[in-house]
Amino acid sequence: MKRLTIVLLAVGLLAVGLLPMLGCSPIENQARDTAAALSGSIIAAQTKYQASCAANASQEVCQLINRGVSGENALITAVETYCGWAPTLTPPDATAACVPVKSMEAGLQAAIANAAALTLEIKGAI
Fold first, then answer.
1. Contact 77, 86 (CB under 8 A)
2. 44: domain range?
3. Considering the entire predicted model, what is its pTM?
């Protein structure tokens, strides 16, 4: 139960952390949309499998949910790095503008692709 609370807190931070991305470039919009889809899939899976995973966290679906959370965190970090924001525990300023660090674009694209694949995998389990 404590782990679920931590995961839900992370999902909430994701929503707040991606708030500054409103009105962004195509890759940033893609990252935001992918993060939202993954977050929704994670929440649905957590809701469906909460009791089962609490009883036996080693189940494949529970591990998939954990990989989804890790992929979501990696995507957030990739967005922060791409936008030149310092990855911190507190969300970036909601008025902060993304200043793309072009050398980080490939990393962001990889994180988007990974998150999209995890979304499909989790959706297949729910």
1. no
2. 2-125
3. 0.75
CA-atom Rg of the chain in angstroms = 15
Closest CA to 49 of 66, 38, 64, 62: 62
Residues 6+ apart with CB under 8 A from 12: none
User: Between the CA of residue 91 and those of 15, 29, 65, 78, 86, what are the distances in Å?
Assistant: 9, 18, 23, 14, 10
- Dist CA 113 CA 19 (whole Å): 21
Q: Tell me the HSE value of 108 on the side-chain side, using a 13 A CA sphere.
A: 24
Total structural domains within the chain: 1
Q: Which of 103, 65, 83 is nearest to 22 (CA)?
A: 83
Instruction: Give 62's contacts (C-beta < 8 A, 6+ positions apart).
Output: 49, 52, 53, 56
pLDDT tens digit sequence for 81-118: 999 887 766 666 778 788 899 999 999 999 999 999 99
**Cβ-contact 39, 10 below 8 angstroms:** no
CA 33 to chain centre: 10
